[in-house]
From TrEMBL:
ATP binds at D34, G35, E36. The active site is at K190. Residues 2-117 form the Ribose-phosphate pyrophosphokinase N-terminal domain. D-ribose 5-phosphate binds at R192, D216, D220, T221, A222, G223, T224. Keywords: ATP-binding, Cytoplasm, Kinase, Magnesium, Metal-binding, Nucleotide biosynthesis, Nucleotide-binding, Transferase. Its cofactor is Mg(2+). Involved in the biosynthesis of the central metabolite phospho-alpha-D-ribosyl-1-pyrophosphate (PRPP) via the transfer of pyrophosphoryl group from ATP to 1-hydroxyl of ribose-5-phosphate (Rib-5-P). Binds 2 Mg(2+) ions per subunit. Belongs to the ribose-phosphate pyrophosphokinase family. Class I subfamily. GO terms for cellular component: cytoplasm; ribose phosphate diphosphokinase complex. The keyword Chaperone does not apply. This is Ribose-phosphate pyrophosphokinase.
Amino acid sequence: LRLFSGSANIQLSQEVARYLGMDLGPMIRKRFADGELYVQIQESIRGCDVYLIQPCCHPVNDNLMELLIMVDACRRASARQVTAVIPYYGYARADRKTAGRESITAKLVANLITEAGASRVLAMDLHSAQIQGYFDIPVDHVYSVPVLLEYLSTKQLSDIVVVSPDVGGVARARAFAKKLGDSPLAIIDKRRQAHNVAEVLNVVGDVKNKTAVLVDDMIDTAGTISEAARLLRKEGARQVYACATHAVFSPPAIERLSTGLFEEIIVTNTIPIPESDRFPQLKILSVA
Ligand code: R5P
């Protein structure tokens, strides 16, 4: 078994390697003057079971391309099996056509990874479960829920209501609520006017005097989660926590999240968060 890291989240890869008691394999990564990427594996991997860790996070196109090049390099070096470990699967939100003449990028990315030569994929908290079916190779879909729940249990929260910030996240929030001692569920009726602009309208469910735990797969610009928190406060929630696996944190996420709306924002390290983007209410859990 050999483990290699792309450049997207070296710290997470190092933690995984430590956990497994292994070293990350040697690999050269270079960028040519015109921006093209170059990868070379620096040891023989002939006949090996190779795992490549690379979330497709910002800068998403570079990180995706680097993953494809790594997979291709391993295939051409006669690895027996190449598993693409993708803690954050970018381009996942376009998982169906919602208007004419659009692309389904989640499927396109699956095609690219498969075509590059991956034999298996290991992904965490895909935006939608059906993305597994976009691959004709095995997909292990793992969840951050155990890590989030373990942390939440240390907080000894009472009167919890789990809240889905939109209708699309109800199944995820329901599963979370079930695991959180069968907590009640509330749903935010969100209408989105344009990409990356969230508009929250209504809460379905009782949140008054409760500890609201918002659950989402990702926080991108934080429009969804901060509008949801504002509405929950308005509806009388006593405390508001947010849990999300992927801290995409595109601007102005940090400004929106550090306004005091939340007791705590709990995310994982599938995507690296620079020191400059950290603030007191942010808790980062490891999924290594
Ligand atoms: C939407 O379907 C997703 O689950 C997230 O709620 C959304 O992508 C978050 O985006 P933003 O933080 O920009 O509102």
